[in-house]
Amino acid sequence: MAEADIKKGLAGVVVDVTAISKVNPETNSLLYRGYPVQELAANCTFEEVAYLLWHGELPTPVQLEELQTFERAHRELSHVAKHAIDLLPLDAHPMDVVRTAVSAYGAADPSVADPSPEAQLDQAKRLWAQLPAIVAYTQRRLRDEELVEPRDDLGYSANFLHMTFGEVPDLVVVTAFDVSMILYAEHSFNASTFTARVVTSTLADLYSAVTAAIGALKGPLHGGANEAVMHMFDEIVFADRAEGWLDAALAEKRKIMGFGHRVYKNGDSRVPTMKASLDTLLVEYDRADLGELYTALEQAMDARKGIKPNLDYPSGPAYHLIGFDTELFTPLFVASRVTGWTAHIREQAAANALIRPLSEYVGPEERHL
Ligand SMILES: CC(=O)SCCNC(=O)CCNC(=O)[C@H](O)C(C)(C)COP(=O)(O)OP(=O)(O)OC[C@H]1O[C@@H](n2cnc3c(N)ncnc32)[C@H](O)[C@@H]1OP(=O)(O)O
Ligand SMILES: O=C([O-])CC(=O)C(=O)O
């Protein structure tokens, strides 16, 4: 096989069909089950979007109420997840903590081996409801703070923030957070979703697939970039240092975190919506300086390389302003993307084929001892 025929990184390779989302780089659009993500962010809650991803249609009021009741009934941190977290050292990375807690939660689920679509949907919904408790407890533990019990009079995002910070912030903050959850929820065959589908294709259970997907999301070329963006801002500090910092970083051949995308080459369709939410937070927290740094680096990157920001660029500083530690940013991505992952796991399971590509052997020719 000619080297040119090898699709390294599977770039440009279509490996299956999906009805869950459509990423269209030509029109710079992203559709969840046919709906533009910007419209969903402006008009729906994350709970409605989760329902849409799993079921293919937005919920009726009765269906939404059922989902909300279910989610509220499964919000409390499970004993097994708490024990698993408490066993880990305090300096473990929060992504490792969340990955371990999800794995432990799955191991203790008596329905884990039931591959029926109904059982998998139930598992997906429970895991989705558990993740805010897992992430919030992981954050609080790092600050030597006690677990906060959920409140069942609050929606998903308000309760998530209440469990993390012990209080519900202003509506503008809850709304910006909810928008981020909607935007992070789904993005076709990205690396972590593909990982989940590979694991599912072996007929392994949903928790194994999600645990593996969390591992794939951790890397800075994928979800880990939202943390890396904040570390970069911490290095640069002032807007007037952005150009010099960028020139030095590019000279060292560093990848600039939060910029570039495998599919979008002319800007990520989700960035304008997340940037608008970030702008509301910059006003709320009176941090015009951070907005200036954001813009200065974006403009410098455009001038030097013509490479545009991806979703991790505005969401990193947004999560920082809301009050999360930087290492918690990718776990927040997990809490959202679990909806997309589990929709894909169910889609893969419903029309399965073992995913097993070929490779071109370039080792030594046959030889003998
Ligand atoms: C929600 C998400 O997961 S979105 C992705 C988050 N990841 C990041 O922000 C990490 C930084 N970005 C990157 O590393 C890349 O843009 C990726 C991994 C996202 C996409 O990578 P690929 O599609 O493989 O593009 P590739 O790495 O081949 O880039 C093409 C060219 O643009 C350059 N380039 C792409 N992104 C960047 C970047 N962020 N900084 C500097 N140069 C870059 C590459 O060096 C390459 O240049 P070359 O042709 O001179 O070698
Ligand atoms: O699609 C990708 O490769 C990465 C991404 O933006 C996502 O998963 O949201």
UniProtKB/TrEMBL annotation:
Domain of life: Bacteria
Gene3D superfamilies hit by this protein: Citrate Synthase, domain 1, Cytochrome P450-Terp, domain 2
Biochemical pathway: Carbohydrate metabolism; tricarboxylic acid cycle
Pfam hit, one: Citrate_synt
Catalytic activity entry: oxaloacetate + acetyl-CoA + H2O = citrate + CoA + H(+)
Active site: 261, 312
Biological process, per Gene Ontology: carbohydrate metabolic process; tricarboxylic acid cycle
Gene Ontology CC, one term: cytosol
Keywords carried by this UniProt record: Acyltransferase, Transferase, Tricarboxylic acid cycle
GO molecular function, one term: citrate synthase activity
UniProt entry tagged with the keyword Transferase: yes
Chloroplast is among the record's keywords: no
Protein's recorded name: Citrate synthase
Family as reported in the entry's similarity comment: Belongs to the citrate synthase family.
InterPro entries, per database record: 2-MeCitrate/Citrate_synth_II, Citrate_synth-like_lrg_a-sub, Citrate_synth-like_sm_a-sub, Citrate_synthase, Citrate_synthase_AS, Citrate_synthase_bac-typ, Citrate_synthase_sf
